[in-house]
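In the laboratory, one determines a bound structure by crystallizing the protein with its ligand and collecting diffraction data. In a computational setting the workflow is compressed into a single prediction: the sequence and the ligand go in, and a structural description comes out. We illustrate the idea with manganese (II) ion.
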Amino acid sequence: MRGLAVCQTELVIRMLDEILLPSFEVDFLVESRPIARRLHEAGMNVTAGDPRRTDTYLKADITPGTCVIVEDGGRRSLKKVLEAIRDAGATLVYVLGVGISDFRKREEELKAQFPELYYLALSELFGGPLLTEFSRSITRLKVHQYQRFFSDAERVLILLHNDPDPDALASGLALRNVLRRTKQTAIIAALQGVTRPENVRMMNLLDIHVDVITPAQVAEYERVAMVDVQPHYFGDAISHVDLVIDHHPEQPGYSAVYKDIRPDYGSTSTILTEHLRAVDANISERTATAMLYAIKSDTLFFNRQANRVDIDAFSYLYPLADAALIKKMEGAEITMERLEYVLKAKQQGRIAEQVFCAFLGASPREDFIPYVADFYLQLEDVKWTIVSGIVNDSLVMSVRNLGYSRNAGEFVRKYFADIGSAGGHRAMAKAVVPLRAFRDKFGNLQADGFTERVLAMALEFLHEHQPADRKLLRA
Ligand SMILES: [Mn+2]
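The predicted complex, in structure-token form:
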């Protein structure tokens, strides 16, 4: 493809020449004869001419297919230049802003007169990669510091939250990799082991071992790290922690020697991918597979709280991981036991205005509840699911929605925050309420009465703050 670049600055010319050749054949047009001469002597295709005159472009032989790049240093004469280019018949016109502080405004101004042009700002084109590089060097510094701090310990502990999920498991493996340790010298542990079948399957397929330990045993380790969780989670059980890496909102009231908390990240594995990249670590297929699966699972395959960094980490890990193994881990979601609860929900559940509500009764494990909630959200006519059950002496409720209506977290907080724990995101939320507290507030409801009551709450919540016409659209 042929290009003509209309520039004033030598640096811009040299840069474009370096970037565009040899994929593009580019001629440069400059106003200043001395610059033209100098660059010509340096071997570039540079001619001098008046950029405000149409015949300059006719002489340069531009056609509607020529890509014309015009440097914009903020001069008033730019519009004249663009007019001349248009009159000469060019249609592919790019304006490259250099040192324009408010380039959006400048773009708007120019587009009012030349709607077909494209505006690119040099700062924006370079900003991304440059900032990534710089923030990587900050990460590198941090990683070097904690690597050193952990290096002289004989055995270190990597502690995960209870019933570790894929992100916790993968982060454990990743941190062991950053610390350059083996399973003998860096122990991955939790106070309560893995129960969800798909997570057990992940552990088996990837041969991940999680020790179950007591808070007293934590104190036996010279260095303690926590991943995907922060010390407040354990209450007073753990008195000392050296390193915390987590993507949940930062909690006050604890001190750690080092921490890296990034609440805008979709997973802790994303943070650890950056740690590994910052120090150029070799990532084994096993670790990459675990981390890739973790990012997928924590962001519900980029449906929730995923941002550019998660997608970056994903594409970095993808070629290193075993895709077939990930497929196998995902299939592990469906079990006979879970299908029993799906059936129960079908018999007992109610649906109104695209809200599906069901009460599963006593459930031996908590994971049946979110599983059933996720399951029914797949139905074509369902936009919200609210599934509850009783685990031990508490009512556990999982709420899911397709993400473009009201906030699921707000729903559980509104009705249950005063009697239990309730919280979550826009598209998924959870409440855990002691049965006694629930009965005190709502009375002693039987299964059907319970479902009706919750459904009524959901509809009330969805109808609030919604203009009538929008309600119809979404119904
Ligand atoms: Mn996580």
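Confidence is low (pLDDT under 50) at residues 468-475. Keep in mind that any predicted model is a hypothesis to be tested, not a measurement.
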